[in-house]
Design goal:
40% of the residues are buried. This protein has helices at 20-28, 43-47, 74-89, 140-155, 160-168, 177-180, 228-242, 257-263, 278-287, 302-309, 340-356, 360-374, 377-393; strands spanning 2-6, 33-39, 54-58, 97-100, 118-124, 169-174, 191-193, 215-219, 247-251, 270-274, 290-293, 314-317, 332-334. The chain is α/β, with parallel strands linked by helices. Helices cover 38% and strands 16% of the residues. The strands form two sheets. Strands 3-2-1-4-5-6-7 form a seven-stranded parallel β-sheet. It has a six-stranded parallel β-sheet with strand order 10-9-8-11-12-13, sandwiched between helices. It contains 13 helices and 13 strands.
């Protein structure tokens, strides 16, 4: 069974989506005849770790003109996908499987569905967009982005290029219900929901302990859809209602960092740390009692997974990737209402209730069990391998 894994993101020891291709390849190598196609820029990092996986490193020299160093470029991605298509076009056979696995977005262009081989798409995102009615004061830029994204989503079911891509795919894997909803009904029977995020479970175990609500954490970029101001207001409600000394540590940087830092400088319990190293993130996790994460658009947040692995409870809204993980049984999670202030009230009340009635150890244990059962890298790879076998035997 020949499998070609197309992995734009494939970098050992990088974390996040950049490492997904490497982790999946590493776990699939003994299960099938595997060739991984990735970018030339990943070669040095991979070959320092690789011994027995067949890698093909492709580059598009013309596309490199559009690639700022260290940043994602849609133009470069487009030209790289052209290179992948022309490479595979001359070698794939009808019964080969091509799996397009990383940086998958329904709306990003690729040409793999034009190959004669069997195509698996995903996990794919692209259906999620910022629902600006849940933000306090969304900028005009965010409103326009949301409108454009929503409009594009609404064209998917009538666009012949999307239709052809879905028709030619043997299996479609999407990350969230939002992306599933834009798939035409005709193709939903071959579509499944699965996050691409995995975890190392060698040292993963639940730790029962005395839970206090003192150190609260947020980790992410400071952009509008992360809904950081609402998380700050939830924190201030917790301060007001409990009358306890607590600290809110915010890690990360971005366009909103300076304005939020200035706006809430009066509250000395809110600490804006800016960008920190991954080692420092780990240390903050070890000292924290709660991850407060009010984001409105995620395909599977690595911050949530990392905090869960550290036995930290997650407080969030049931939207986007958070509808898949964490579950209601393994987190402090509420449904969003149209009233902004009511959402602050509901989440802060539920956090206090869970700490007051000693429910935190239970949800943390459930979350750890969920990771062990569904998100260990080898188990994710096995799900893919079982798909390959099912397709190969059909």
């Amino acid at each position: 069974m020949k499998v070609y894994l197309v992995a734009y993101g494939c970098e050992p020891n990088q974390g996040g989506e950049h490492e997904v291709g490497w982790k999946i390849a590493k776990n699939l190598k003994s299960k099938c005849d595997l060739t991984v196609i990735t970018r030339k820029s990943n070669e040095m990092k991979i070959e320092n770790e690789n011994s027995d996986i067949d890698f093909i490193y492709l580059e598009n020299k013309f596309g490199m003109k559009f690639k700022p160093k260290g940043k994602f470029s849609y133009s470069y991605y487009f030209f790289w996908q052209i290179s992948v298509y022309f490479y595979l076009k001359n070698i794939v056979k009808t019964n080969d499987i091509v799996h397009y696995i990383t940086f998958g977005n329904i709306h990003l262009p690729h040409f793999l569905y034009l190959l004669k081989s069997k195509l698996i798409l995903g996990p794919m995102g692209g259906g999620s967009f910022t629902k600006t009615q849940y933000l306090k004061d969304p900028s005009n830029k965010e409103k326009i982005k949301s409108f454009i994204h929503s409009t594009i989503n609404n064209t998917v079911k009538i666009n012949p290029f999307y239709y052809l891509m879905f028709k030619k795919s043997i299996k479609i894997i999407v990350r969230t219900e939002e992306t599933l909803n834009i798939i035409p009904d005709k193709f939903k029977e071959k579509t499944i929901i699965q996050l691409e995020t995995g975890v190392e479970t060698n040292y993963l175990k639940f730790e029962k302990k005395d839970r206090k609500l003192e150190n609260i954490l947020f980790v992410s970029r400071f952009v509008e859809h992360k809904n950081i101001e609402q998380a700050i207001l939830v924190f201030e409600q917790l301060q007001k209602k409990t009358q306890k000394n607590m600290t809110f540590n915010l890690l990360g940087n971005g366009p909103l960092f300076k304005s939020l830092n200035n706006k809430y400088s009066y509250n000395k319990s809110i600490v804006f740390h800016g960008n920190v190293s991954h080692d420092e993130v780990i240390e903050f996790n070890k000292k924290s009692d709660l991850l407060l994460f009010c984001s409105l658009k995620e395909g599977g947040s690595h911050a949530i997974f990392e905090s869960t692995m550290n036995n930290i409870p997650i407080a969030c809204f049931n939207i986007s990737g958070m509808t898949v993980f964490p579950t209601f049984e393994s987190s402090i999670k509420v449904e969003l209402e149209q009233n902004y202030e009511q959402n602050i009230e509901n989440l802060s009340n539920k956090i206090i209730d869970y700490y007051t009635h000693n429910k935190i150890n239970t949800i943390c244990e459930n979350a750890i069990n969920d990771l062990l059962e569904n998100y260990e890298w080898n188990k994710i790879s096995n799900k893919f391998y079982n798909l390959y076998k099912e397709i190969n035997n059909a």
